[in-house]
Amino acid sequence: MKFPQPQSLKQISQLIHAEFVGQPDFEILGINEIHVVEHGDIVFVDHPKYYDKALKSKASVVLINKKVDCPEGKALLISEDPFTDFNKITAHFTPFEASSQSISNSAKIGENTIIQPNVFIGNHVKIGQNCIIHSNVSIYDGVEIGNNVQIHAGTVLGADAFYYKNRPNRHDKLLSGGSITIEDGVEIGALCSIDKGVSGMTTIGAGTKIDNHVQIGHDTVIGKKCLIASQTGIAGCVVIEDEVTIWGQVGIASGLKIGRKAIIYAQSGISKNLKADTTYFGTPADDIKKKYKELAYINRIPDIIQKLKNL
């Protein structure tokens, strides 16, 4: 998430009431999570296990809960609770903006795009040409949709990320300041849910087709010409490369990468990265030939037990 204009280290420290290490006029361009952080960004870290990763990341500023040596060329913001202070920054630069009508005046809708009755289109949404948005679709603020896109009834684009910190007496929500990009030629089925990025963009690549009842988590990037069948659940921060086929009821854990042209059979559970040009099945999913051999061996177990009894 980039700020509307660059901020100084001192300005951000005053916003969150945190001590800083670095030059007061040190330039900050935005905030991001560790997996998408860029030069000029703030990244937060609140566990010693991840200190080193954050300090060595591309981030220019590390929001951290302990005084440590500041890497050359970077700055630090010292906070008792980086998670809460990261939320303060998000809320300050992307505050909730209530809507008073079904289609916001700030939305931009291209020529020949059809908006069916009972559609909600939030603030600063951009929709390209020759799209069809069916009834009861909800499009949250800031979503960008390309040309020749069709979105079927009841789908929700831009709901908050499912991202919580476990406190002793509650779960604290990490605020979502990102959004969604839907590229040209995408079709999204009925009753799908695609969450906005926490600080970046959830992206659906050109030509991808998504069936009904699919959930796509925050900051996930789906490539071009993918096919995703019904009841698939994709967690946050997943990267799915071009021309991947995912059949029904597949579950994909967070932060994984699915290689180009991989095929995942129905009801598989994905708990590790998958190679390109390979077909997978099972839970945990594996190469389909290997998995079918395992199943064949398992089916032989009763016969083996019976033979042992007869010895």
TrEMBL record:
GO terms for cellular component: membrane. Its EC number is 2.3.1.191. Residues 25-91 form the UDP-3-O-[3-hydroxymyristoyl] glucosamine N-acyltransferase non-repeat region domain. GO terms for molecular function: N-acyltransferase activity; UDP-3-O-[(3R)-3-hydroxyacyl]-glucosamine N-acyltransferase activity. Keywords: Acyltransferase, Lipid A biosynthesis, Lipid biosynthesis, Lipid metabolism, Repeat, Transferase. One of its GO terms (biological process) is lipid A biosynthetic process. Gene3D superfamilies: Hexapeptide repeat proteins, MurE/MurF, N-terminal domain. CDD domains: LbH_LpxD. This is UDP-3-O-(3-hydroxymyristoyl)glucosamine N-acyltransferase. The lineage of its organism: Bacteria, Pseudomonadati, Bacteroidota, Flavobacteriia, Flavobacteriales.
